[in-house]
Amino acid sequence: MAYKPEVKPVQSVYHALQLFEVFRNAENKDEFGVTELSKSLGLHKNNVFRLLATLASRGYIEQNLNTENYRLGIGIFNLGQKFVNKLGILKLSRPFMEKIVSEVNESVYIGILREGNVIYLDIAETQLPVRVISRVGKDVPAYCTAIGKVQLAYSSEEEINKIYMGARLKRYTDLTVTSLPVLKKELKQVAAENYAFDNEEFENRVRCIAVPIKDYLGVPVAALSVTGPACRMTQERMEKEILPVARKYAREISKRLGFQEA
């Protein structure tokens, strides 16, 4: 049965989902104490403890016996893997991601767009000693990532407004675009060129270039990005060396999804 907005949510389930979102939104923290979670959720500590105990009994939460704090359990990982495995595009894309790495020797991501965020699903990593920390499993604002912008670019004006109108575009670096009109102008250029850059907009000293993966309707269902340290990812190298390779294999994946170029 489809969810109806007027149906009152089950409070215990609602609070469990809120708890998981605390972990998801924590950038540099993997564990929380009961008191911290109580403050974040606005619930009494006894309620939070019972919630944690219930989730721990099913393996979705576990306690660190050394710190007595709580962290996500193996059940969450298994659930996430189940979701990822259902996305056949990952199995299809992996060989081509590895080919890109073998040709340009930089790390390659595949990611999807969900409600204004990019979810990084997989990475084929370079073996170079200096590399960017993996973003797999993280969701990152689309407006400041190449892999996000190259998918946002195919959204309508109405869809862009729905995502960002009235929202504050957070500044992550000095180069982050925080103006909606400027972002819209950039997205028009991305749509015309069919690729996007992230020039240290989300992380300092990290640059990316991304190309879309399209389905049989010509709709971007995912994107590939080549990511590396800014010292190696110069504008000239991204445009002349990396872009042709990324485009070539993104086309191959798209063809296998039924996309036909005009």
From TrEMBL:
Keywords: DNA-binding, Transcription, Transcription regulation. One of its GO terms (molecular function) is DNA-binding transcription factor activity. InterPro entries: GAF-like_dom_sf, HTH_MetabolicPath_Reg, Tscrpt_reg_IclR_C, Tscrpt_reg_IclR_N, WH-like_DNA-bd_sf, WH_DNA-bd_sf. It comes from Denitrovibrio acetiphilus (strain DSM 12809 / NBRC 114555 / N2460). Residues 75-259 form the IclR-ED domain. One of its GO terms (biological process) is negative regulation of DNA-templated transcription. This is Transcriptional regulator, IclR family. Residues 10-74 form the HTH iclR-type domain. The keyword DNA-binding applies. It comes from the Bacteria.
